[in-house]
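Researcher: Quick test of sequence recovery. Tokens follow.
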């Protein structure tokens, strides 16, 4: 059994909490949530900007094609009027 001592032996044991209860884990988790939220926001705004750019380009091309068609039709009308004018002489 061993030698008896007047002073009992003491053993100090410190049990640390699991990592998911540590302050640094809460900070990392919160930072991760903020980072993911920011990345999703950036992706959405970039997609919206891209769609707006595409819409503007489409509108510009549409206006250009309509303007070209208007000029073509106007030219045909002028030619038609000139033919009628010279035919009537």
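Model:
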């Amino acid at each position: 059994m061993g030698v008896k001592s007047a002073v009992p032996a003491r053993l100090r044991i410190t049990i640390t909490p699991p990592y998911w209860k540590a302050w640094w884990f809460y900070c990392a988790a919160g930072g991760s949530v903020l980072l993911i939220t920011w990345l999703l926001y950036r992706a959405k705004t970039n997609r919206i900007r891209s769609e707006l750019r595409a819409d503007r380009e489409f509108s510009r091309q549409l206006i250009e094609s309509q303007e070209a068609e208007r000029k073509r039709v106007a030219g045909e009308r002028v030619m038609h009027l000139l033919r009628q004018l010279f035919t009537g002489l």
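Residues 48 and 54 are 10 Å apart (CA to CA).
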